[in-house]
Structure formats: C-alpha cells, structure tokens
Structure prediction request, 113 residues.
Amino acid sequence: MSIEDSSDDIVLVNLSRKLQEHDELQRVVGIMHERCDCNVVVDFSSIGVAGCATLTRLLQLWQLLQDHGRKLVLGSVAPATRGVFVIARLDEVFDFVQDKSAALAHLEVLGRR
Prediction:
C-alpha cells in the first residue's frame, strides 16, 4: 500500500494485492483519525475481490470522513468487488469512479458546490 498527498486536501491510497493479509485500510483509518482535514481516494486497481473486513474498514473510514465534512471516493473497483457493494447495499453509500483521475475530477466538482 502507498499513501500519498495528492494536494493539500486529498490523500491517495493505493491498495496492494495482499489487502486482506495486512489490513491496510485499518492503517488508513488510524492515520485519518489524526488527520481529518482531507478527502480520501482509494485506488482498488490491484484488488480483485474485497471481503467483509475491507467493507468494514471502508465504512469506518467513510464515517470518520463524513463526521468531518470530507469525502471518500473509490476508484478502479473491479466488477466482482462492485457486486459485493451492490449485494451489501453499499453502492449507494460510496462514490465510485473509473480511476484516480476521475476521482480527482469528482472531488473538484464536489468542492465547487
């Protein structure tokens, strides 16, 4: 996993293939507890299918960011993982975009509202 500041108010999180083994999103939640002044983009391009632990961590991160008026955007989500979100009825909770570029554009549009 890599975490990088894209700008002053956007953090990009690139998940690794071994997401479940290392619980990377728990680390991101911890970081955001200390730093709630930014929006977060999570890139799923290396993830085929996300499981229950991933959904739990994403919900924790989403709630934390919501509490501080910030956004969580998910990019490059594989169809199998997107199906998990639909079945869990979480597809209406999260903002999904095609890729990182689309995520940054999406946040820019939201910032203008």
Remarks:
- The domain at 2-111 is CATH 3.30.750.24 (Transcription Regulator spoIIAA).
